[in-house]
Structures
1.
Amino acid sequence: MYATSALSALVYGEGLWSKAQKDAVYSLTKYSMSFDEKNYAEFKEFLNIPLGDRRAREELQKEFPDEQVARQGLSEGGNHPKDISRIINAILWFKNVGYMKEAMRYWQEGDHLIESLRSRGDEIDGLISKINSGEITKNQDKVAAIVRINEIMSDVSNINTNLTFIEKSFSQTLSEASRQIGNILLNIIIGIILLLGGIAVIVVTYINKTVARVDRAKSEFVSIASHQLRTPLTTLKWYSGKLMADIGKINYEKAKEYAAELNFATEKMIDLVENILNVSRIELGKIEIVPQKIDIKQISEKVFEELSQKIKEKKLNIDKQYDEATEKMFADAKIVKIIIDNLLSNAIKYTPEGGDISLSITESYNGNNVVINVKDTGIGISKDEQVNIFSKLFRAKNAQSTGTGLGLYMTKELTEKCRGRIWFHSYENVGSSFYVILPKIFEREDIKI
């Protein structure tokens, strides 16, 4: 648990780094227009945070690092004193391992860009200081200086865009590292269940201690986690108890059945935690849209590949239709994948064995949008419940045992953040048809930095 806590502290530190960088760019932009030295002082003050973190990173990447130097750098970076030791341990433990090694590379690239940003700021200050002091007097020279300032600010804008990409990549890589470690820990926990049992007590104790530590701003998150994790935890507790009670007299087939149930409950817990974290990021405004050229057909096929086992188990008939004009679009690949995955997962979950599911991706009549349609022959949604279907934690009466109440809420929020729209038609015991319309080209200037 300490390992994941250490990675969480590092993710929080990255948030401070990112905010300081954005504030620095904002202050430099104001300085380029106001010529007010106070704005430049703010710019330098904000840069002290990533510069402090840089000193810590460089020290910790040495063969024999001085932890006191790293501690001082992280303190200058605005990190909470209680988090500093965790951040140091996370880097020292995992800096040469998998995703963490990649994250450190992104961090190093970000530090190079911060140095370029500082250099541009110094150059702008030099020009403005000459104008303010009267060293530059001729109008022609002043105009030339102002033109040069604008050119530098254009470079600053490019640096800021690149930093946004680096920050996003760093955050995603850390999340993958945390997930990877979390999966390892879950497997260890399952092994402990098979030998000793008692996992439910451990988890409940951990949740109770967490509730005692968090403030009111986190109370809803903890409430959701406790509510949604109860079912898989109960399953883990029951089957681990059966294993303990029947050990020595249980046959292979029954042991295999129990192991399958434990594995299913664990996968459900992982999916629930991932959904809860995504919802939390959306509501905290931590979801950044990074548009790029994507192949939506390729993304869809990847989703089908990941869901193939569930499709085979239920012997579902799948129909796919792709409009070639939609294969290349400019959007956030990760968000598009989440949207398609949620719609297809729901269709598979609520369609009975032998049912039909279709996915069509077409271009809108005006050619400016992409329309995603997922249709199934599942249980459908009753008319009186349809108004609430996109509400957080809402589950229809005929889906109480399987739904989490988060998937469609998250899909709607992400769709709207991408300037899109979602709607559906559904008939109980007949099936549902969900539509998502997204801009074919999501303009970069639409993104709020």
2.
Amino acid sequence: MKNTLIVLSLLGSALFADAAKPNIILMMADDLGYGDTGFNGNTIIQTPHLDQMAKDGIKLTHFYAGNSVCSPTRGTFLTGRHHHRYGIWTANVGHLPKQEITLASMLKEQGYTTGHFGKWHLGTLDKVISSKGAKRKPAENFAPPWQRDYDRSFVTESAVNTWNPGAGNRAKNNPFYENGKALDPDDPTLAGGAARVVVDRAVPFMEQAVKDGKPFLSVVWFHAPHEDIEAGPDYLKMYEEHGEGAHYYGCITELDEQVGRIRAKVEELGISDNTLIFFCSDNGPEGKTPAKRRQGVTSGLRGRKRDLYDGGVRVPALACWPGKLAAGTESDVPLSTLDYFPTLGNLTGYEMPDARPIDGQNIWPILAGEMDQREKAIPFIRGNEVSLVDGEFKLLLPKGELYDLSKDWSEENNVAAAHPERVERMSREIAELLESFKTSHAGADYNDPEFKPVGKWKNVGSKKK
């Protein structure tokens, strides 16, 4: 298996070595549940543009966010490394160290122009104020995208209202920053749908890159449907029979329209055949059960946001590249946000400058239909809980639960007693990963004597005495 992966990786690199480097668009929703899109079976929420993207590309039916909450997933998304390697334990904690090699730094080095639009959530954007107050330690955790290799950025530190995002409770000490400059909350360009506000900045960035003849990386992290959830009047009319739930449904449809807008712009610019687009969510839906404006669903997966069961981490996902990826297909291979970095590095011919551990893998052979299983297991940590997805099986510690995901969609049948050797092997792998994470967190990967670890390491995965 390992030899096959190496050969296919080399073939993938050769395939794109002589071609123009692809434009890359990476879109992510916020708190969108596995069952919250038409392409995953939702019959209420209208997502025609995402559904069309599914028809034009690959539906990734077993795709994992890096964590069951926001900030850690975003770290895995940009680095290909588990968030515990650099101290982003949970949401609104720590920051992305400058020593990390990210998608932006990797691609910028190869001649890409880079842009980040929407939510950031990987550090503060001001050294004095933070949307989370003084406890967020804004000076210590100052790590804005304009200091993390992005040429253009239009971002907020954390969540905003999904309609009129410059206003409301979420806007306090949480302005939009455009290339490092805070916008006035009354700026008229911040009125309306939060997704449209963000894409209004992403589209000109792409247009300018094409005009300049440069390949681009455009990271678009939508705010919807994270709280505060509000839909505009036209969207509420679409779902008026659903009461408060209309706000949830409406803000997702508004996001969907902007996905369609981005894809239409790619087509208009004549670059669709050389543009790879991914879409996913950062974790499962908010709330213990669907209620009021929290209407996210998981298609029967157990758990929700903040859970390591699949309802908290398994998310809707798509990949689309006309002429390179087969349209109208599905992949049920376990994949992860950890895989973006190594996959895009492979496609663009990037060589790592050091031997730091990468936890994701190049999934191009899987997307291209050349492989039907992954090589690396996928680790998760939330609080003291740890889980590992290895092929069809998933182990959760310290609970000691093992599930066969190929037969147990809802993780209801603990088969640990029937597979003691598998439990032991996966437990050893978890222990080895945790030790590796701890070593990385201490700075061993950086060769930087001035590096100070982000936060204090905490041992996880053991039963509390």
3.
Amino acid sequence: MNDRRFYRLVPALAATCLTVACGSVLQLAGIEGTGDSTGSASGYGSLFVNGRAFATDTTQFTLNGETVTEADIRIGMQTRVEGDLLAPRADRVTAARSLLAPIDGISRVGAVKAATLSILGQNVQVDEMTRLVGTSLDALHSDMLVDVHALVSDGGGLLATYLTVADDAYVPASQELLVTGYIDTLSATELTMGSLTVDLTATADTDTLAVGDRVRVQGHQPSRGGNLIATTIARDTLDPAPGSYADRAVLVDGVDGNTLIAGATTIALGGAQRLDRSGATIEPGTHVIARGPVDASGLLTAVDVEVLPAPDVVLRGQAAVQNGEIRVLDQAVATRAVTQLLESRAGAARQFAATDIRAGDALTIVGYRDTSGDLVATRIERQDALALASAYGELSELVTGDESTRMRVGGVQVVTDSETVYESVAGTEIPKAVFEATATAGLTTQAWGVEDQAVGVLRADRIRLLNSEEDIAGR
């Protein structure tokens, strides 16, 4: 299994790719030029890509080759935008899935907020930043046919940004499947992508393919786990055009000094300004945005670069708003231009800004602690209501007592009492004494309960340790 660590980039409505094809001029940090960008979008009405808003009044929308409306383009979908970066305006938005295939296996390691799915020989990382529509991580199983949008690395790993269930009871050979990835080996009759073998005997125009090409393959799989019989295969290049200006969101495949390799894209960091304060090291698997001019050879020289790590804090509670500051479970929440904003209230307008948040709003905050200890939101979801408040994150400041125990979970002050239920990673109830003997600083923990805003604590009904390992294959 590919165990490379993934880091999240969360610019906006999906993980999007923005291509400037109209000869517009972008000026940023004193540099001008036409170009293209990959990134993610986070809002509607205006399409937000890499923290930049694009008007969509006259935009044409396409999803998986079909003409659609803006309402069909969902947060998390991999999207290409063609338009005018200077306006900025989107003339054409095209979203396309990366995978349509059954789940072959599910592996979870450590905290149950993340999992790796085995899908057509590819390892697909799913975590709290994956937009799961109509399902949940716990509900996924190997009979499901899933529609996945993802960032793709040349090491065979995919970082899912959007996942929905196309069929809850998939029947082998009943559906044409799709896989996106890089060619590892190639012959006249077959190729391999990860652990998947693709039969090419029924396809044409494969003579121009080469090892290392990124391709999209459609075909049928007669039996689960067997070869994919390709009906069509095409290159799926996202390389920036030479002589353009690029705004690129990538998974890093390799690092050579100050140069990043991501598929066929090469990015020179040089004197690039680091925009985030996550402290995350840029290494293989890191998800970055790099912006800058592209020379005649295709090298992108970054003016700035931004990294967002995988989320390590998840809070659910009611908002408190004072002087423009948002607090949830007594934690100040910082936002950035690339923060995803998801409106889930029934009947509410899809357009949503952080300034729209009001005291008492039910919010889910997904984010990370930066080098200053501040909580930076990578996603904020506003909901109708929350049955319980909860905190997920690193355990610290554990103070035990006969009647109650105090601790911090993801920075939130948590208080237990005689009615609190303590659980192991499997959800099995354990004695308070066993919990206290096991719970050491740094362990990932989750607490559910009632928020006491008057004193800024979460009074826990239930608390669970999440740092054991469990592997679930072919659930």
4.
Amino acid sequence: MTRRHLEAVVLAAVVVTAGTGVYVVDRAPTPTATFVGGTASGEQPTRPSVPTRIRALHQRGITGANATVGIVVVTRINADHPELRPRIVERRSFRRDPAGQPRGRHGTAAALTVAAIAPDAELLVATVDTPTDARRAIEWLTARGTDVLLVPATVLGAPGDGTGTVASAVERAADRGTVVVAPTGNLARNHWQGRLTPTRRGLHSFGGDVRMRLLPPVGAGTQAGGRVQARLRWNGSAYPRDLTLELYRSGASGVTRIATSERTRTGSVRVERLDARVRPGDLFVAVRLPNRTVRRFEPLPVRIEVTTRRHRLLNATPAGSVASPATAPSALSVGAAAPDDAGLAPYSSRGPTPDGRRGVDVVAPPTVWAGPRDGTSAAAAYAAGAAALIISEADTSSPERVITLLCDTAVDVPPAGADAESGYGRLNATGAVERIEAPKGRTEDSQPRTKPHTRC
């Protein structure tokens, strides 16, 4: 297989399984990534319905006034939307080709969710294409004095320990006093991780089987097919050799290899990308090791991860599927609550992170959303609006204080206690506001806390 070092990256708005998300994907110098999902910009989404408890806060005059929310968007935003026109105070594009901004509803939907929760907050919007664009956008929004920064994007293939271009920019923004909110991702059913286990066939064993079967996206028929996009990631320091991700078809004539991956990242974190268009059928992926390096046929001390963008994995492992920039230590990492608020949405990514952190701070309802499908981006936008409400009422806008309020007042969901699936529980904007209101006159340091921590 011919290997190329792929240096360019592009952001893509896509619909995955049961959620809408924005992803950073690798591409070759000749672009192979496409923008999938969303609708034409001529269609104007309506303002999402506001939950009763949030409306009650608005009726008390708690509307996010005097708070500013910065939003990093990928798809073209409809700044002339009647709900957004009076709220957007500044816009800037960091794309090389601003006119080439892809059409879609994701950016507009994120802004509408924030405006629905915090209707008097001012919005600043930055449009981006690459992680470098996103870094510059975060720096610009931070320099503009933004109180809350929403980054509704997931970086596929980035290090999971909170480093990387976008996650590092998030850390710097938090250091300068900005509350940064990011979705955990919609990858719980599209992710597998485990120890690299060689077999005598030269393939990795996924818990006893060298095949990882692909399932179609939810609602997309009974067979996998169409565009298949997958990533293989591993620690290059622990295993400094090549691994290859391969796509196979199983049929009446036997098993046929139909696509192989290309390298997109080298160094301490290595990434292989597979991108192919195939007809529907019985498809599976496999991880190939170079035979000359295999000496022991037992699990090696190195973890590998396989992640797909659209297709579900038959034996997915939700644990560890949280993605950058939500993996940044200072970000408020937000997952999606189940529709009945009793647990976690099945697609919502989980922790822990590779460096042992929980990875999820809270979950929020993803239903306050004007896009075609909800997801963790919708949940994060809800949380960003809630943070704006807190800042408009509190005497401080420090990230630690705001995030601590949101975590301390969250409603626990099973299993009991803070965990890597739902963090501290379901976000409770009303409880957070009431915490800072009662009793009046109490200083920040003397306000009671229900958990002994300075932030999530």
